[in-house]
Design brief:
By secondary structure, the chain is of the alpha+beta class. The protein has a single domain, classed as HIT-like (HIT family, subunit A, 2-Layer Sandwich), CATH 3.30.428. It has helices at about 15-20, 60-80, 115-125, 130-145; strands spanning about 25, 30-35, 45-50, 85-90, 100-105, 150. Strands 4-5-3-2-1-6 form a six-stranded antiparallel sheet. A hairpin with a 7-residue loop joins strand 2 (about 30-35) and strand 3 (about 45-50). Helix 2 (about 60-80) crosses helix 4.
């Protein structure tokens, strides 16, 4: 059997995502949500655990919270007027720190159906940042209303 390459952050003391635990657009005591910049689709968000966990490390309570929180985020992304679907991905090969991807598929762009969304995202020109910032803020505000937590303290954190 071949050994697996080490993922970033296998050692929590060397984990960039742990150091960024206070960066993002929305927070509660266990989770943070950030907008990924430089993407080709209308909105890409990333949900992180604020403490160092991988998916298999979550307690049953945190796993249940992840499911409910994921559902709220999907609802709010899909409520954006120009978005048809929110695609949710957990890949886990690049980093040992839990991170869940949310890709917004724009209305009418059926070539982006399904698992091809991340591939298309890499091929499309960069989506206008001002529109993505506005959409990310709308999702964060809706999440505060529906789930609790708080928005970021500064606009610079919108692009964490």
């Amino acid at each position: 059997m071949l050994p697996e390459p080490e993922r970033h952050g296998e050692d929590p003391s060397n984990c960039d995502l742990c150091r960024a635990r206070d960066e993002g657009i929305w927070f509660n005591e266990r989770w943070r949500l950030a907008r990924v910049t430089g993407v080709g689709v209308p909105l890409v968000l990333m949900l992180y655990s604020r403490d160092h966990y991988d998916m298999a490390d979550l307690s049953d309570d945190m796993a249940a919270e992840l499911g409910v929180l994921t559902t709220h985020i999907v609802r709010h992304v899909q409520a954006l007027p120009h978005i048809s679907r929110a695609h949710v991905y957990r890949i886990g090969d690049g980093a040992a720190h839990l991170h869940i991807w949310f890709f917004a598929r724009p209305e009418g762009q059926t070539q982006l159906y399904g698992s091809w969304m991340p591939v298309w995202d890499d091929l499309l020109p960069e989506y206008p940042a001002d529109v993505a910032d506005t959409d990310a803020a709308a999702v964060a505000d809706a999440l505060v209303s529906s789930y609790g937590g708080r928005r970021s303290a500064t606009d610079e954190q919108l692009n964490a």
